[in-house]
Amino acid sequence: MSNRYYNHDFYKSQMHDSRESAKKVIPLLMELYRPQSVVDVGCGTGVWLAEFMELGIEDVCGVDGNYVDRTLLQIPPDRFFTADLRTFRYENLGREFDLAISLEVAEHLSAQYSTVFIRNLTKLSKVILFSAALPYQGGVEHKNENWLEYWISLFKQFDFYPVDYFRRKIWYDTDICWWYRQNIVLFVDQTKLVELFPYHDRGIDVHSYVHPELFLWACARGLLGHDDTLYSRDVQNYRLIIDAYLKNEPVNADKLAVYANRYTTKLTQIKCLEKARKIILNFLRVIRLPRL
């Protein structure tokens, strides 16, 4: 992991939205479980830990790379510990915590480090708040975007089981970043599971869900060629529909965008033709046809 990507601008750009998300998610967690100590592995500038501190939890610890700009830290510097997350070991901290969190971090590590990374989380706490990017979610230096079931299988190796406590509660809350709404799940040690969720069935399947706002973002990146204008229109369109749905009101059709196969098909044809042109040109370069 390199400071070429994880620089001042990278962290500065995400601090506000992450903090606003934390303000909504953490109180929901506190309704269920109030930890007295929290460690965040891959904490960035510590915005989630800062929100725990706002709620009276002073015993916090953040772990991330030496590339984090200290001028942006939202927690006291002595609560921040540097480590290469690829080789970090839980023993380095010398203690356990009531809660460990690692949000949108695991996808930044190559798959060869995934098992050890999850093992370290399970050694740091019996309750883990976790999220990681799905395939094609996109982001800076994502090396192992994967389905939730992939992470579940890793956690189960250490007798930790998923509890889908948040996603249904926050799915439509636009104050929370869509990647948290889509990916955030609790993983709980089987002994602690009985205490927190006495009626929870470990056999209940917890699935990957693709949030509509990720789908629209993926379309904007791929099919529409990074068209931010259309992406903004599409997200606004989706949110108008959801607002009416939640209020049990009819949707005002005059305010909605119109989607038609003709438009999508035309774009697809253009992109296919462009790809075909490049393939033919590359082929001609390789065979080096003689000039007439």
Overall description:
With 292 residues, the protein is α/β, with parallel strands linked by helices. It folds into two domains: 8-208, Rossmann fold (3-Layer(aba) Sandwich), CATH 3.40.50; 213-287, no CATH class. It has ten helices and seven strands. The longest helix is centred in the C-terminal third of the chain and has 27 residues, at 261-287. The N and C termini lie far apart (52 Å). The mean pLDDT is 84.
The CATH class assignment of the largest domain is Alpha Beta
Strand content: 5-15%
Instruction: Output mean pLDDT.
Output: 84
Structural class: alpha/beta
Spatial sequence of strands, sheet with the most strands: 3-2-1-4-5-7-6
Helix content: 40-55%
Please give the domain count: 2
Number of helices, counting only DSSP H or I runs of 4 residues or more: 10
Please give the largest β-sheet.
7 strands, mixed
Tell me the name of the CATH homologous superfamily of the largest domain: Vaccinia Virus protein VP39
Radius of gyration, CA atoms, in whole angstroms: 22 Å
Distance between the termini: 52 Å
The name of the CATH topology of the largest domain is Rossmann fold
Shape: globular
The total count of strands amounts to: 7
Oligomer: single chain
Order of helices and strands: HEHEEEHEHEHHEHHHH
Low-confidence stretches are: none
